[in-house]
Amino acid sequence: MNLTQLLEIDRAVLAWFNGSNSLFIDALAQNLTSGFTWIPLYLALVFVIIKNNDTMPQIFLAIGCAVLAVVVVSVSVELIIKPLFARLRPSQDPLIKHTIAVVNGMRGSQYSFFSAHAANTFSLAVYLSLLIKSRSLSVMLVSWSAINCWTRLYLGLHYPSDIFFGLLWGALVGWLAYAVYRRFGKPLGLPRTQQTSQTTATSYLQADIAKLLYIMALWIGVVIIYSIFNT
To answer: What is the C-alpha separation between 155 and 132, in angstroms, rounded?
Structure first.
């Protein structure tokens, strides 16, 4: 299989995901793809980290490594990788942009390879899954990243290959962020390994994880209702 055939497959898969005849799904995808939509999730995660660490150095390290992952992804993708490959977004490519379903004129910036949304969300999903070690939280975070990836395809802002390589880069950066956490956490007694019926393998309270999952489900419900009333 040559490059031309791979690109044709890429476009065919994108065509399957891109757009619909539903104004509600249009609004939902546009709302879900916005970073501002997920501020309550970020705040809830910060609260859980603060509540489950004993000292300010522990808190700063846990949150700082999450910020580090986002910064590394954002800088590497936006300033190095996208300009280097210079692959036009589907919604910007003059050869196919008129076949792409665009929602409310949303065409994004010029380049698409690879997806910063996919890389950022998955780097956080990987890092926080390793940090907290809760299966239910990991499923939620991976699902959250998958939702973001779906919105980029639905809105015609990325090809499937952009998403795939973004996820790979995000996984690597998330793992490296956790490696930094382990390296600098040793003098701080981190990561903790005492597990009970009420805590995860890294001593995060299961009750706090349950509250976080509840907040996530409730907030998605709010976004869905908001999307219904804004179609």
So the answer is: 32
Q: Which residues, other chains included, contact 133 with Cβ-Cβ below 8 Å and sequence gap of 6+?
A: 200, 201, 202, 204
With contact defined as beta carbons under 8 Å apart, do 96 and 10 qualify? no
User: Do residues 118 and 163 touch, judged by C-beta distance below 8 A?
Assistant: yes
Residue 3 is predicted with a pLDDT of 79
**Cβ pair 144, 125 in contact under 8 A:** yes
Assess if residue 63 is contained within a domain.
yes
Domain, as residue range, for 186: 23-31+44-228
pLDDT tens readout for residues 60-70: 999 999 999 99
In CATH, what number is assigned to the domain containing residue 203? 1.20.144
Query: Which amino acid, 150?
Result: W
Residues 209, 170: Cα–Cα separation, whole Å: 23
Q: Assess contact for 213 and 40: CB atoms under 8 A.
A: no
What global pTM score does this model have?
A: 0.96
Environment class of residue 218 by beta-carbon count within 10 Å: exposed (0-12), middle (13-18) or buried (19+)?
Answer: exposed
Residue 16: inside a domain: no
In angstroms, rounded to a whole number, what is the distance separating the alpha carbons of residues 123 and 129? 10
For the chain, give the percent of residues with pLDDT over 70: 100
Angle between helices 206-228 and 23-32 in degrees, nearest 10 = 140
Long-range contacts (CB closer than 8 Å, 24 or more residues apart) made by 138-145: 140/212, 140/213, 140/216, 144/38, 144/41, 144/216, 145/118, 145/121, 145/170
